[in-house]
Amino acid sequence: MPELPEVEAARRAVQDNCVGKKILNCVVADDPKVIDGVSPSELQASMVGKTIVSARRKGKNMWLQLDSPPFPSFQFGMAGAIYIKGVAVTKYKRSAVNDEDQWPSKYSKFFIEVNDVRVG
């Protein structure tokens, strides 16, 4: 299970690489265990065109503050992580996604593409 430093590393990676960028595309898995209360297509539609203002964290929960709602939140669970294509999110384990890697991962539940960066 991700510990506080891992969640903070993910928050900082998003803060450093994604703030000020506009969401061009959003893909949401149809998984009611992970995404509840809204359909994937509604969430996708509500995200596209928004700008990421900041990445916030409290404990093991992280959320994106956008220029207007919704503000998607993430609870990393047992194996959850943030991946930013081409960026090593943590220094002590494989956390960078290379060009030859499947993108987004088949395990991705929420994927966004912003200007020149892809986050999953």
UniProtKB/TrEMBL annotation:
It comes from the Eukaryota. Coiled coil: none annotated. InterPro entries: FPG_cat, FPG_N. Residues 2-98 form the Formamidopyrimidine-DNA glycosylase catalytic domain. This is Formamidopyrimidine-DNA glycosylase. The lineage of its organism: Eukaryota, Viridiplantae, Streptophyta, Embryophyta, Tracheophyta.
